[in-house]
Each structure stands twice: as structure tokens, then as C-alpha cells.
Amino acid sequence: MKKINLITLLITTIVFSQQKKINQPSFSTKGKTITVYTTTGDSDIKLTKTDELSFKELNQPLETQTCVFVNPNKKFQTFIGIGGAITDASAEVYAKLSDEAQKEFLQAYFSKQNGIGYSLIRTNMNSCDFGSDSYTYIEEGDKELKTFNIEHDRRFKLPLIKKALNLIGKDATFYFSPWSPPAFMKSNNSMLKGGKLLTEYKQSWANYYVKYIQELQKEGIPVWGLTIQNEPMAVQTWESCIYTAEDERDFLKKYLGPTLKKAGFGDKKITVWDHNRDLMVQRASTILDDPEASKYVWGLGFHWYETWSGGAQMFDNVAKVKEMYPSVNLMFTEGCVEKFNAERYNFWGNAERYGKSMINDFNNGTVAWTDWNILLDENGGPNHVKNFCFAPVHADLKSGKLIFTPSFYVIGHFSKFIEKGAKRIATSASRSQIISTSFLNPDGKMVTVVLNQSDEKVLYNICIGNTAAEVTIQPKSIQTLIY
């Protein structure tokens, strides 16, 4: 009798769950209005509400009509967030601003209502190039880490991180990346110019991550995750350290993974690679094909600097990793416009680079997207090796004013409107002049972002099922459609 009741209960549960799934309401455009927000290069239209539109019947688009097709029935990865890096440089510049400018800056980045709603923060463990000096958290030669302390960060970096996290609230995601171990742990006895982690210090270096997490959490900073090494194949004039794919795999499975787990930090999300799209398929194959290493991997991180070779961005490599390893999480961990030039603060091409990358990366399976420095000064620094770059926001420390570049607003077309937990929705354009991506927010609102890469105004239809609305987008513009 008990056996029959158990079977009956099981069948009832399965039927009920299937009915519940079938009865879930599908996305409908009926009665919905599209609110359009636009940013256009060379104009004052910056994240400006520019239109309200209604859906009308359109059963079969013509070849002569430009369309963006959105299929709400096809859902993909779950969105985590968009943000940037709070480096020593960003924190040093922020500390030099007036109270009024500091408040303006924090609201602009981290408020959904008054700004663009960043929810993701990356920072550097030990120094990177963006800061006034090189440093570690221990005295040179301290293999046992007895002198470990993060006092250096308490002056500038930690106060800014805490303020940002406080504004973000429950949706905050915080992770860190090292650029180099201390000099004595490396083959070149320097934090700069590459070198490799010496075998006799691998356990000590793994312990270093644990110490850092412990110290951050004592400060009330919840650590979500970490990357193993920033740009592990680049010998830079600044802080850098080389790991081949096999080096990173073996350090993860023999040292870092087990050490974090033993310390009670097995829940921290470990991201591998953290370098350009060019070699990401090879790195993924080497690490994720090893079951002992892959069990510690949450995701694979990537940057956009593969263009140093003179070629285009390798967006397809992101899709290839997702195709090969569907369960791996993909996260954009760094990108900025290199070679600072104050005359190009308002250059639309810099902003378009962000929009193009974000749309392609999300469409290829990326769950989170991290810009580089959130703030730099009027020289594109400070940077202790003079590697000056652009940030979405600069501070002119002579006048005390903030400079919001077009890149800030383009990022905002995604970060302000896409909510944590949103699902990416199948989206495609019928013409190459425009590219697009869509997300369905947890509250049922659809967010579609459209970038016009051309020098011509484009009239397009946003099409869902047999309904559509006609939208005009100006040349060199980006739009967010909410409906």
C-alpha cells in the first residue's frame, strides 16, 4: 500500500510540475509600450529618453525592411552584473576630489536611480601598474607570511571599495586578481617584467590568497571570487607573472584549489585565464579537460587587447569556448582604451568599442562584464610605469571637475537597465549596420540594446512574434528599448 501511494505521489508531482511549466505565461507585447533611451556621438543626447512606441501587427517583414528579431522563447545564460576595477589609481584620484565631486562620482557609477548602476567590482591583490608604487602585503623573504597585512590598502583603496559596495547593496559582486607574487617568489626576482612563480613558493603563494580573503572579510568586504593571475602570458614592464596553460592548471589543482577548500573558502568562484580572447580556447582546453583541475573552476575570464597584433577582436573565440564547455561561466574581466590622449575624451570610436564588445560578448554567452579603471586623472594615471590609458570617467584635478566620456554612457545602456538574474534572450539583426542583444529581467521587462555602427540614420523594426514597432536610430548611436 505504501509503495502504491509513493508511486501515485510521484506521478502527481511530475504531472503538476509539467502543468505548472506549461501554464507559465509567455512573454507578450499586448498592451505594452516601448520606452527608448538613446546616446548619440557628438550630441548632448546621453542616456536620454527619446521615444515611446507601441507594437503593431507585422506578420512577415520584407527584405527591404531592417529588423531586430527578438525571440522570448529562447533563453540562455543568467546575467550577474556589469562593473569596473577599483585600482590604487582610481582610489588615489577619488581621494583628491572634493566631497561634492566624490558624491557625484559614487552616484554616477553605483546608483541605479541617479547613475548607471554598476554592481561588479574587481580589485588588485598586491600592486598593478595603475597606482603610484609597487607593493606587497609582506616583508621581502617572508615565506611563512608572518608579516602579512593590508595596511597599504586602508589609505585609499578599501574606503572606496566599501563606499561602492554600500551603495550597490545586496546585488554586489566583488572579486580580485593578482598581477605578481612578491619578487623573492619569482624566477626573475622582480615583480615586474614577467618571470615565473618558483616551485618552492607555490604553497606559500596559495596561502597568500587565503590570507588576503581573510583580511578583506575582516574589513566587512565579502569576497565572491578571484582570478588566478592577470594576463598570465604577457611579459609586461609592470607587475606580471607567466603561467603556461599547464602551469596554471597544475597550480590550481595541486595548490590553490585544495588550499582554498581546506581554509573553508571552497565557495569562492575561481576564474582561470584572465587574458585576451586570442588564446582562450587553448587555455580552456588544457584546464577544463583535466577533471582534477576543472572541479575547482567556476569560469574563464577574458580581455579585449588581442587587437595589439593589428587584427580585429576575436569574438568568435568566446562562442567557441561556450560551445566546447557549455557549463563554464564566461566573464569579461578587463578592457580599456589604451594610449591616453585628452583630445579624444569625446571620441565616439572609443565608446563604440565598448558597445560592440559588450553586445558580442553577451551574445556569445558572457554572464558578467568588467571594465578596467573606474576613474583616472587628467593624464590617464597615476601609473608607476607610465602606461597611461582612458577610463569612462576622468577627474581634472586642476579644476576638480569630473569628465564623463561617451564610454560611460554606452556602458550605462547595459548596466542601468539589465538586472541581476536576467536571462539573455535570442536576438538577431537583419542588417550589419546594427547589432543587438536582449535580456529578460526578473520583473518580466524586456531590455533590448541596439548599436548603430554606421554613418547613416537607420529605420528598423523591433520584431517579437507577429508584432513590431518602428524605431529610428541616428548614426553612431546606441539605444536601449524597455518593454
TrEMBL record:
Keywords: Glycosidase, Hydrolase, Signal. This is Glycoside hydrolase family 30 protein. Residues 81-418 form the Glycosyl hydrolase family 30 TIM-barrel domain. It comes from Flavobacterium capsici. One of its GO terms (cellular component) is membrane. Gene3D superfamilies: Glycosidases, Golgi alpha-mannosidase II. Residues 421-481 form the Glycosyl hydrolase family 30 beta sandwich domain. SUPFAM superfamilies: (Trans)glycosidases (SSF51445). The keyword Protease does not apply. GO terms for molecular function: glucosylceramidase activity. It holds the Pfam family Glyco_hydro_30C. One of its GO terms (biological process) is glucosylceramide catabolic process. InterPro entries: GH (IPR017853), GH30_C (IPR033452), Glyco_hydro_30 (IPR001139), Glyco_hydro_30_TIM-barrel (IPR033453), Glyco_hydro_b (IPR013780). Belongs to the glycosyl hydrolase 30 family.
